[in-house]
């Protein structure tokens, strides 16, 4: 028996909808992740929390890890600045929560919330989510961008789920600045753009092609994995379900899908039915849909649903 994970060097794991939902752990997640022999890096588009704060939340759920096991889109944004030639010590306007400022400072940049008189204009802006980001902060982004600063968005998620409902996410705040300056950001660090996965693979001392990306959302985790050249496992414990997978355009289709994280430790070719049988059924439904054979696609989709039900009961 060869567990799914043995095909890869490591796992890059999403958090919300995979490890936790709100404050609670997703069933089976902590036990499975604790038992893995392969290294895991947790990659989050959330730019406002520091890796230390994320790691401490995960430890409260029962995982054993440190802040080096977490990569955030703020860190990926700072990494992108290095890649694009912004030198250490460069003044970078930091808009967002503590995670943005800390990531920039740790990467050697001089993070400022407002341009300081006499120190020169910011060479770059990193814009991430923060509960306290104000209209004045967004105005500073617009002024810096108009002055030629490189504009990096930590992520462009339009919405942010909260306990009280759906709030505007960083993408909505980035769009507000884009309206003012007449264009979008120069670079985006988080999923579905590749830098966060690239940084995670770098942290794991391997290549994006050698890791398995695990996530719950097609438009971020799976599309991002595809763009990074990474295989993906969609777990059905979060946002997207099998119907979403069946309706997905080609670049949003995961390599494999599973009811939950426990399948990381299973042989994808073994069992009745197997994970690979489910993936093959989904593939046939996609092929029928791509060929415009809607009736056939619907029938094959129902077959995939039956396989998923049996798989979940195994
Ligand atoms: Mg998620």
Task: Identify the notable features of this structure and list them briefly.
314 residues; alpha/beta; Rossmann fold; six-stranded parallel beta sheet; five-stranded parallel beta sheet; 11 helices; 39% helix; globular; binds magnesium ion; HAD-like_sf; hydrolase
* Percent range of helical residues: 25-40%
Q: CATH topology of one domain, which one? A: Rossmann fold
What is the succession of H and E elements? EEEHEHEHEHEEHEEEHEHEHEHEHH
Bound molecules: magnesium ion
Shape: globular
Total number of helices: 11
How far apart are the first and last residues' alpha carbons, in Å? 17 Å
* Corresponding CATH superfamily of one domain: HAD superfamily/HAD-like
Report the strand count.
15
Strand adjacency order, main sheet: 5-4-1-13-14-15
Q: State the CATH class of one domain.
A: Alpha Beta
Content-based structural category = alpha/beta
Mean pLDDT over the residues:
96
Low-confidence stretches: none
| Rounded radius of gyration (Å) | 21 Å
Structure description:
The protein is 39% helix and 18% strand. It is α/β, with parallel strands linked by helices and 314 residues long. Among the domains are: 104 residues, HAD superfamily/HAD-like (Rossmann fold, 3-Layer(aba) Sandwich), CATH 3.40.50.1000; 49 residues. It has a 6-stranded parallel sheet, sandwiched between helices. It is globular. The chain starts with 9 loop residues before the first strand and ends with a helix. The mean pLDDT is 96. Bound molecules: magnesium ion. The site of magnesium ion has 8 residues, from loops.
């Amino acid at each position: 028996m060869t567990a799914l994970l043995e095909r890869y060097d490591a796992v890059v794991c999403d958090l919300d909808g995979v490890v936790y939902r709100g404050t609670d752990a997703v069933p089976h997640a902590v036990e499975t992740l604790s038992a893995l022999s392969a290294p895991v890096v947790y990659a989050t588009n959330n730019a406002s929390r520091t890796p230390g704060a994320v790691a401490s939340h995960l430890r409260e759920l029962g995982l054993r890890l440190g802040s080096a096991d977490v990569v955030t889109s703020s860190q990926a944004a700072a990494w992108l600045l290095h890649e694009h030639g912004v030198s250490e010590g460069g003044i970078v306007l930091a808009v967002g929560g503590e995670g943005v400022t800390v990531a920039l400072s740790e990467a050697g940049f001089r993070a400022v919330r407002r341009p300081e008189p006499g120190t020169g204009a910011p060479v770059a802006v990193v814009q991430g989510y923060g509960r306290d980001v104000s209209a004045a902060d967004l105005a500073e982004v617009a002024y810096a961008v108009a002055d030629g600063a490189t504009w990096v968005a930590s992520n462009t998620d339009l919405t942010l789920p909260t306990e009280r409902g759906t709030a505007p996410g960083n993408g909505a705040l980035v769009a507000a600045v884009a309206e003012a300056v007449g264009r979008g950001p120069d670079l985006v660090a988080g999923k579905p753009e590749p830098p966060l996965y690239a940084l995670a693979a770098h942290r794991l001392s391997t290549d994006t092609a050698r890791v398995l990306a695990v996530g719950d959302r097609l438009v971020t985790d799976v599309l991002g994995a595809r763009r990074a050249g990474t295989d993906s496992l969609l777990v059905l414990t979060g946002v997207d379900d099998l119907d979403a997978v069946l309706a997905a355009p080609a670049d949003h289709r995961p390599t494999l899908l599973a009811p939950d994280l426990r399948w990381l430790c299973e042989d994808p070719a073994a069992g009745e039915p197997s994970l690979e049988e489910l993936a093959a059924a989904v593939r046939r439904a996609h092929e029928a849909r791509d060929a415009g054979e809607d009736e056939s696609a619907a029938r094959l989709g129902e077959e995939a649903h039956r396989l998923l039900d049996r798989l979940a009961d195994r």
